[in-house]
Structure formats: structure tokens, C-alpha cells
Amino acid sequence: MDQYRADLVANHALMVAAQVLETRFAGADFAFVAGSIMRRQGTVGSDIDMVVLYPRLEWAWRESLVEDGFPIEAFVHDPTTLEVFLGRDAENGRAIMVNMVAEGRIVGSRVEGAAALRGRARGLLKAGPAPLDGERLEFMLYLLSDLADDLRGRRDREEVLAIAVTLYPKLIDLILLGRGLWSGAGKWLPRRLRAADAALADQLSLAMADAVAGDGAAMLALCERTLAENGGPVFAGFRRVSDVAGLAGPRL
Q1: Cα 30 from chain centroid?
Q2: Which of 47, 105, 165, 213 could form a disulfide with 71 if both were Cys (CB 3.0 to 4.6 A apart)?
Q3: Residue extents of the structural domains in the chain
Q4: Can you name the CATH fold of 3-127?
Q5: Rounded to whole angstroms, what are the CA distances from 241 to 134, 135, 136, 139, 173?
Q6: Comparing 41 with 239, which gets the higher pLDDT?
Q7: Is the distance from CB of 104 to CB of 38 less than 8 angstroms?
């Protein structure tokens, strides 16, 4: 999409978002409008992301709709629920809500609190995710160690591919979070890895291509190297207590 058309689409999308805020979310104060369309990077099927802010809600919610041909994902909050979700992003290392608030265009008639929320999100982005350590790091190492073991030896092509697809997001998470960098979800995983280390992103892409063909050796090598860089494999002695109580457990 050329720049002129991208600008037209983004401006139209912003008008549509403002209309949706006024009609469907009539009691809301304002919204942050974000996503690839607003970044002038939209493709066929790209949607509009809206973080909608009410002054007070009983529950936050998420809903999907279509308006004037645009798919819209609305994340509906008040300041208290939004703070919880921003904190969850920092805790799990995926700047999803944080990015939408930090980069979104503001629409609405009562926008007094928008600047403070945007500042909060940008501060979280700059600070980076919560450190990867303790039980959280141990669990990630355990999961990757288990998947690495699954790649050893001879397997059918379909099994190699299934293991590699499961391993791919967990491996990128450990690479990025282990370096103190934000991770992501979906298409943001390869984007964030490439921004952090283009050479490593190329290696992982080639390893995935090999896995599609039934050869998991390159993926296994990357996994072993990443494990070693973050403390080594974890298996023997690993223990994690479930939140599901047995017969002898507590009763409410």
C-alpha cells in the first residue's frame, strides 16, 4: 500500500473508531485507537484495535464488531481494570495492551485522563518487562528442555513439525525475555526477534523451514544454545504444585 493510500485508510479508520465510540460505547470518555492500520502498515484483513475507557465499570470486557467494512477489536476498561492489564503485560513480558495505549491515537470528547494513561504505558515500555528469574524462568527452561528431548532421534515429518511449531513461540520468549526485552504474541514474535537480533531471526526461520521438511536438527541446536545461555536444561528435580486441591486439601 502506497503512503498516500495508507494515510487515507488510517484517517478513515480513525473516523470510524470515533463513530463507534460515540454510538456503541456512548458512556465512555475516550479510546486509544491502534493497530497496523494506524501505523500505515495495514494489509487486507487488518483490524482496528480500540482500548475504550469508561470512568467506572463493574467488569472489563472484550468484543469484536465490524463497522464500515473495518473489523474492530474493542478492549473495554476503566482506569482500575486497565492498570491490571498493563501490569499483566509487564509481568508476562508481552507488551500487548501496553503498546496499544502507548502508541494509540486518542478519540473522544472527555480525554482529560488519556495523557496520564499514555504516559504510564510509555513508562512501562521504557522500563521493560519484569525480570525473568525464579520459578518463572525454571518453568520456561523445563518446557523447552522437554520439547528439545522430543526432537532428539528419528521422527516422522509431521511429528517434527508439530514439535517445532510448539517450540517456536516458547523459544522466542526465552530468547527475548532472557535478554530483558519485550516478547509478543502471534506475528509480533518474529517481528520482535528480528528487531532484537536479525541474524538469529534468520537462523530460526531456516530452522523452521528444515522442520517443515522433517529435519529438526537445526531447531534442536538453537534450543540447546538458548537453554545454555539461560542456565541450562531443567528436568530432574523439577516440581510445580497445582492449584487444584485433592481430597485432603482445603475446602471453601
Answers
A1: 24
A2: 47
A3: 3-127, 134-229
A4: Beta Polymerase; domain 2 (3.30.460)
A5: 15, 11, 13, 12, 23
A6: 239
A7: yes
